[in-house]
Design a protein that fits this description.
The protein is of the alpha/beta class. It has two domains: 88 residues, Beta Barrel (Elongation Factor Tu (Ef-tu), domain 3), CATH 2.40.30; 111 residues, Rossmann fold, CATH 3.40.50. It is built from nine helices and 16 strands. The strands form three sheets. The chain has a seven-stranded antiparallel sheet with strand order 6-1-2-5-4-3-7. Helix 5 runs parallel beside helix 6. The longest helix has 13 residues. The two termini are 23 Å apart. The structure holds nicotinamide-adenine-dinucleotide (NAD) and FE2/S2 (inorganic) cluster. The site of FE2/S2 (inorganic) cluster (FES) has 12 residues, from loops.
């Protein structure tokens, strides 16, 4: 059992939990994820690690309360326990000692972006970040990013913070103004990562993306997290979750991600969650 040592509401849809998980905290690296089960017969949900403290033995997760299991998780409070918390899983992000990198975080995707940017900064890389959200309320981890970024930009769909529009509007603007980046790391909704790649690919700016398909075992056995990358079948849980954005079949990912929406909504209604 894994104790929740801190719980914080970030906005109306997003929550943060710091969980006592000493083994995971000791071993995890940016880009890796955990799979948790809220209770004994719960569904397994993969969540990217947002931060970790090796000395305290804790791992921070940030999640959107959207489906059946995240709603169950959200009912837990500080001092309560999570049944299973398995990790670190997946490959750590291959972070290169570039001169300058641009991170793009869309909504809750800013959470897994944060440890990658933090590590790049510690390696001496100059980092800019664009954070996007539907409105100001959905911009997350602003203070944490400000501490480590050279420049930070915002985009909100309704214009309540930064540029009115998508993160790709800011990206286009930065590139038009002559900013040069050795790599872009984009994490957020699939449609956002696809749109980022449509800007960076013609300019040949290497672009890493992080995929979060439906996962079950998280060990490459069930095939649930199958994605097509460069025409080959990959399993996001063991081969990823990070992939070369130029090679990802985003349309297939989007189709597969929505497979069980109807069933999930049905179970939520049945259980009154
Ligand atoms: P959202 O729908 O509010 O979008 C966030 C931002 O993405 C928008 O503000 C916008 O700037 C950008 N965006 C959205 N559509 C775009 C488009 N068509 N073109 C260009 N930019 C666009 O995001 P949310 O509701 O917070 O959802 C976050 C998503 O991130 C979820 O779908 C979740 O599955 C995903 N996620 C991914 C990972 C990962 O590891 N890959 C981790 C956590 C979350
Ligand atoms: Fe089963 Fe990846 S979650 S193969």
């Amino acid at each position: 059992m894994y104790k929740i040592v801190k719980k914080k509401t970030i906005n109306s849809q997003v929550e943060l939990m710091v969980v006592e998980a000493p083994f995971t905290a000791r071993k995890c690296e940016p880009g890796q994820f955990i799979i948790l089960r809220v209770n004994e017969d719960g569904e397994r949900i993969p969540l990217t690690i947002a931060d970790y403290d090796r000395e305290a033995g804790t791992v921070t997760i940030i999640y959107q309360v959207v489906g059946y299991s995240t709603k169950l998780l959200s009912k837990k409070q500080e001092g309560d326990y999570i049944n299973d918390f398995v990790g670190p899983l997946g490959q750590a992000t291959e972070l290169k000692k570039h001169k300058r990198v641009l991170g793009i975080g869309g909504g809750v995707g800013a959470a897994p972006l944060y440890p990658q940017i933090k590590k790049l900064k510690s390696m001496g890389v100059s980092v800019d970040v664009i954070i996007g959200g539907r409105s100001e309320e959905y911009i997350i981890l602003e203070d944490q990013f400000k501490e480590i970024c050279d420049n930070i930009y915002f985009a909100t769909n309704d214009g309540t913070r930064g540029t009115k529009g998508f993160v790709t509007d800011v990206l286009n603007d930065l590139l038009e103004k002559g900013n040069k980046y050795d790599e872009v790391i984009a994490i957020g909704p699939l449609i956002m990562m696809k749109a980022v790649v449509s800007v960076t690919k013609p300019l040949n700016i290497p672009t890493g993306v992080s995929l979060n398909p439906i996962m079950i075992d998280g060990t490459g056995m069930c095939g649930g997290c199958r994605v097509t990358v460069g025409g080959e079948t990959k399993f996001a849980c063991v081969d990823g979750p990070d992939f070369d954005g130029f090679l990802v079949d985003f349309d297939e990912c989007m189709r597969r991600q929505s497979y069980y929406k109807e069933e999930e909504n049905h179970v939520c209604k049945l259980d009154g969650i």
